[in-house]
TrEMBL record:
Protein name: Carboxypeptidase N subunit 2-like
Upper classification of the organism: Eukaryota, Metazoa, Chordata, Craniata, Vertebrata
Coiled coil ranges: none
Keyword terms, alphabetized: Glycoprotein, Leucine-rich repeat, Repeat, Signal
Pfam families, alphabetized: LRR_8 (PF13855)
Annotated signal sequence range: 1-21
Name of the encoding gene: LOC113432226
Regions crossing the membrane: none
Domain of life: Eukaryota
């Protein structure tokens, strides 16, 4: 009886320490973490191992020689919750590569040469919450690539070579809150592209080739907090493009070719804290209305000659106002 009680106590103590250790190192790459399997240049491998110890929940591949992830590559590792490939040499990912990973919530492949990803790449990843494919030379995203990922919250596709996005590619993602498409070659955004992203809070499209956004393109994004369109080719915005985005706090429109903005552009956006329109071709600025929370307004490096509309605005929280590089004669 005494022996059984002692063994039970030791088992409970081990489980407690295991839980404590997991909380201390889970999520980020840390040396000597018992729940992480880490491969690096000094511990290099050329293919995915067939299995890992049951205690392993996270795998990191940093600058390894792996170039191919075949179907079912992780089939014997159902305990994994996170897989990260950093500075990878991966050139091909087969459909079903991550099958049987029913607990996976975080998948990252960066620095790769992926080109095109087949539909079915993320098949059976019902609990996946984050996909990061940054800087991986992705050229095309097929409709259906994200099908079945109803729990997905964040998609990072920035610093790739994506020129267009098919309609419906982001359908079926009711929980998506962040979409990063910056630093690509996107020139056209279809009207229905974001139609079903009703919970999206962050949309980043900076450093693309977008010349215009059609009527209704952003209407469904009523929870949006951050809109980043800087470094594109915009010349104006439609009068009601932003009218339904009543939760916007950050609007970034720097480094476009905007010459004129309609009178209604910013009216009704009462939660905006940061509005940046530096390095455009603006000659005048539309009314801001009652932006009671606005803290930063950047209109520098434009062609503005009058602050008439700005003078009539109610901006009690304004802390930073940048006007340098304009054609102002008096303030």
């Amino acid at each position: 009886m005494w022996l059984r009680a002692t063994l039970l106590l030791l088992l409970l103590l081990l489980l407690f320490r295991t839980g404590q250790g997991n909380q201390g190192c889970s999520g980020t790459l840390k040396e000597s973490c018992p729940f992480q399997e880490v491969y690096t240049r000094t511990r290099d491998i050329a293919e995915i191992p067939k299995s890992v110890a049951p205690i392993i929940t996270e795998m990191f591949f940093v600058d390894t020689s792996i170039v191919d992830i075949g179907q079912g590559a992780f089939a014997n590792m159902s305990n994994l919750v996170k897989i990260v490939f950093l500075n990878s040499k991966i050139k091909r990912v087969e459909a079903g590569a991550f099958e049987n990973l029913e607990n996976l919530v975080d998948l990252e492949i960066t620095g790769a040469e992926l080109g095109d990803l087949p539909v079915g790449t993320f098949r059976s990843l019902d609990r996946l919450r984050k996909v990061n494919l940054r800087d991986s030379r992705v050229r095309r995203i097929e409709k259906g690539l994200f099908e079945g990922l109803g729990d997905l919250e964040e998609i990072y596709l920035h610093r790739n070579e994506i020129a267009s996005l098919p309609g419906g590619v982001f359908d079926g993602l009711p929980k998506l809150s962040l979409l990063h498409l910056g630093w690509n070659q996107i020139s056209n955004v279809s009207r229905d592209l974001f139609k079903h992203l009703t919970q999206l809070k962050t949309l980043r499209l900076q450093n693309n080739r977008v010349g215009s956004l059609g009527e209704g393109t952003l209407d469904s994004l009523q929870q949006l907090v951050e809109l980043n369109l800087e470094s594109n080719r915009l010349q104006t915005l439609l009068p009601n493009l932003l009218s339904r985005l009543v939760n916007l706090e950050k609007i970034l429109l720097d480094k476009n070719s905007i010459e004129v903005l309609p009178h209604e552009t910013f009216l009704g956006l009462r939660k905006v804290k940061q509005l940046r329109m530096a390095s455009n071709h603006l000659k005048a600025f539309p009314p801001l209305g009652a932006m009671q929370l606005l803290e930063e307004l950047d209109l520098s490096r434009n062609r503005i000659s009058s602050l008439e509309n700005l003078a009539g605005a109610s901006l009690p929280s304004l802390k930073t106002l940048k006007l340098q590089g304009n054609h102002l004669e008096t303030l």
